[in-house]
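Entry 14. Ran structure prediction on the chain below.
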Amino acid sequence: MSVCVPAYAAPAARAPLVPHQITRREPGPDDVRIEILFCGICHSDVHQARDEWGGSTFPMVPGHEIVGRVAQVGSAVSKFKAGDLAGVGCFVDSCRECDECRRNVEQFCRKGCAFTYNGTEMDRKTPTYGGYSTEVVVKERYTLKVPPSLEPSAAAPLLCAGITTYSPLRQWNVRPGDRVGVVGLGGLGHMAVKLAAAMGAEVTILSTSKAKEADARRLGAHAFELTSAPGAFKKLAERFDLLIDTVSAEHDLSAHLGLLRTEGTMVVVGAPPLPAPLSAMSLIFGNKKLAGSLIGGIAQTQEMLEFCAAKKIVADVEVIPASKINEAYERMLRSDVRYRFVIDSASLPGA
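Output, structure tokens:
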């Protein structure tokens, strides 16, 4: 039997989020029911709640950075028990049959994975609702074990911001001594700094804001460069093996490619609103590569959580009550957060 649980939802595009009730299914044999403790606020939550990418469905309950306690498991569940700390990231199911699913990159499921919110279950009918709620029910296969040494509120953003930056660092095999530049110091950038430094890389933050230098060094960056300074790009030419570009505003990709060493790679993880012009010569000379990266599959996300536990890495967070969600959206758009808002689920009305 399904149950109604408290949530916060966007009733329509650009409308303020409000208290809401949603239905969660009764756990089946392979399901895990999680009582949500904390849910991070991702920049994509704002885009989708305001239908800035198109295709949004309402009412929408955002949230895909979920950490909670297991409250109930189905009869076929073997990896979880009541009381375990568990996480849910950006998707909650996939076809499990296509080549991508078999290769553990379920985020690229040929049939389309079931996103945690603003999507549907694999039946393509049942809407999915995210972590701005008190409970969630997820298949065991898509539920993540959160190491108990990680503080739950600060671990929540690892389920999106963490894996979004960990995945390209692993894909491009970052090793001790590599020179890694992180473009932008926000929710994604601050995780990229921590993770790359923990992998032994020499990390430089590339920012347009001098005010972020102290934070960059506190987070583990070895150097800070102000890209808005005269001559900055000439000074930094051919310095980096890898650039992680986290910026979601328009910026000059060709200029940044000039910062790469021969055969270096720039990986885009931020999503600017408009297409960016690109000079072919910025790629051809030096055999430079421009790549993109989304998130990781379930196996890689679990690997990331274990890495973070071993290296004592979590996000820098500001925990807020649910009543502050709309304010947090506006503050995030002003970059007024260091570096991730996290909702305390106990503050939801009716929790």
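The mean pLDDT is 97. Will compare against last week's run tomorrow.
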